[in-house]
């Protein structure tokens, strides 16, 4: 019985036999003549060209052909910046942070902090450290002759032994290291991984450490500060000054000497002028206080031919204290309370007489006023040194009180405006030594700095009891020559109709004028 595998073998053998029979029938014997190649006839590949006159006329010359080709030529244009930016490839750049970390990994020395010290580091013997090829082949002590033969011999050599044990142990260690190094260099050169050329030769410069000082600074400054995360510093507001002061000092002297036999005649004299002015003001919110103190004295020497009793005469003597308290009502107007104190400091006498014209607290004048004050300050001039200050005080209710500590018959109270007694007693002063009157008063002061060297000061006072009038008008022109010297022109007019007319007071108008030169200082 034929199995399935045997049937497949029989079928495969049958197809193989049929194929061989078919291949053998197609084959035919090949003769020698059939194997020999026949000779190939070579024909001319370039045909013969016959050109006529018509064909020759169609041939284009080289010049015409070049012109046709150049007709489409265009001059190259330089590419624009936009095109170059488009064509340019982005170059890869490493950020500073990446370079820092790359160097930190590659450089083994960066694993130590800059502030680290090696005072407690153990020193290792060079024999047990990695070997580095130094490049020295010949020994350092190689010599071809004895240098000692050229030296002069010491006649005392050999008399005492030379101590060679001081550094002998160190020399022994050095020789051992050199022998070990030579042995490895000659027998195991592959152990050398580095040479002296691979070592760094840069000079390490010390980095200066600067201390950041933060004391008394409104803002803390750091080297690596991120200004985006730092808030703006607090605004510095200086402390406001509510009290302001000013001072002016003047001392001017004029002296003239004339001998007794001077052909033109004349008398020697000495004039002294001094003025001390202090001002101390306070201003806060709506409250404003003005305080002034002034001492103004003008003396001149009197020759014996004019006054045989007194040696000097007082032309002007004022000790003045003034204070004004104001509370702002609106704009430049203030409700005000005014106080003024006046007296003299030096005794003044009548020429060739013992009558006292004025003395300290003789008289004493006090003024109290209640009203309103107007202040104006203008500084918007083209010249920065030019400014104007005006103050006008109007007191509808004003009180004047005068007192004289000298009330004897030798005191002239009439010239100061004191009232006469109704029934004077013989041997006493005919005028009262106390004066008290209510009325109205207007005070005005002006300071005009024309430029850096010229200033004008003016004061005006008007007081009336509605029966009598007292008016004073004072002007001072100061011409500053240098910082400490100036020329002053002073003029004062006075009107007082409360004075009883006498031989000395024929008019109610009084004048005082002075021109001086000397020391002047202000701040």
TrEMBL record:
Pfam families: DUF3078. This is DUF3078 domain-containing protein. InterPro entries: DUF3078 (IPR021428). It comes from Candidatus Parabacteroides intestinigallinarum. It comes from the Bacteria.
């Amino acid at each position: 019985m034929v199995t399935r595998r045997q049937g497949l073998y029989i079928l495969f053998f049958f197809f193989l036999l049929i194929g061989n029979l078919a291949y053998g029938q197609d084959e035919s014997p090949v003769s020698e003549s059939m194997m020999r190649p026949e000779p190939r006839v070579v024909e001319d590949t370039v045909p013969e060209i016959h050109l006529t006159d018509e064909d020759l006329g169609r041939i284009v010359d080289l010049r015409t052909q070049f012109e046709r080709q150049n007709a489409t030529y265009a001059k190259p244009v330089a590419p624009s910046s936009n095109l170059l930016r488009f064509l340019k490839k982005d170059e890869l750049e490493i950020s500073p942070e990446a370079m820092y970390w790359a160097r930190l990994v590659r450089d083994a020395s960066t694993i130590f902090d800059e502030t680290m010290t090696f005072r407690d580091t153990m020193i290792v013997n060079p024999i047990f450290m990695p070997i580095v090829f130094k490049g020295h082949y010949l020994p350092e002590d190689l010599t071809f002759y004895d240098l000692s033969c050229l030296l002069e011999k010491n006649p005392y050599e050999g008399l005492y032994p030379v101590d060679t044990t001081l550094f002998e142990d160190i020399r022994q260690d050095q020789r051992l290291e050199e022998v070990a190094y030579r042995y490895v260099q000659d027998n195991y050169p592959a152990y050398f991984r580095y040479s002296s050329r691979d070592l760094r030769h840069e000079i390490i410069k010390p980095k200066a450490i600067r201390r950041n000082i933060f004391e008394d600074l409104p803002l803390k400054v750091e080297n690596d500060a991120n200004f985006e995360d730092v808030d703006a510093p607090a605004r510095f507001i200086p402390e406001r000054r509510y009290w302001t002061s000013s001072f002016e000092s003047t001392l001017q002297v004029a002296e003239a000497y004339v001998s007794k036999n001077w052909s033109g005649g004349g008398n020697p004299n000495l004039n002294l002028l001094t003025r001390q002015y202090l001002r101390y003001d306070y201003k806060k919110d709506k409250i404003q206080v003005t305080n002034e103190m002034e001492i103004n004295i003008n003396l001149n020497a009197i020759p014996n031919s004019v006054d045989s009793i007194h040696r000097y005469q007082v032309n002007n003597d004022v000790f003045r204290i003034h204070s004004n308290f104001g509370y702002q009502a609106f704009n430049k107007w203030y409700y005000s309370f005014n106080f003024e104190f006046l007296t003299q400091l030096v005794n003044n006498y009548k020429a060739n007489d013992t009558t006292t014209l004025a003395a300290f607290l003789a008289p004493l004048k006090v003024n109290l006023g209640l009203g309103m004050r107007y202040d104006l300050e203008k500084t918007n001039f083209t010249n920065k040194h030019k400014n104007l200050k005006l103050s006008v005080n109007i007191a509808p209710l004003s009180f004047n009180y005068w007192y004289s500590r000298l009330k004897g018959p030798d005191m002239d109270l009439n010239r100061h405006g004191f009232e006469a007694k109704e029934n004077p007693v013989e041997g006493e002063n005919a005028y009262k030594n106390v004066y008290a009157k209510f009325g109205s008063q207007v005070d005005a002061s002006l300071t005009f700095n024309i430029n850096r060297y010229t200033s004008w000061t003016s004061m005006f006072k008007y007081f009336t009891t509605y029966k009598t009038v007292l008016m004073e008008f004072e002007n001072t022109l100061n011409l500053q020559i240098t910082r400490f010297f100036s020329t002053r022109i002073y003029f004062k007019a006075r009107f007082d109709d409360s004075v009883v007319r006498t031989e000395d007071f024929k008019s109610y108008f009084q004048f005082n004028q002075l021109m001086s030169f000397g020391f002047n200082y202000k701040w």
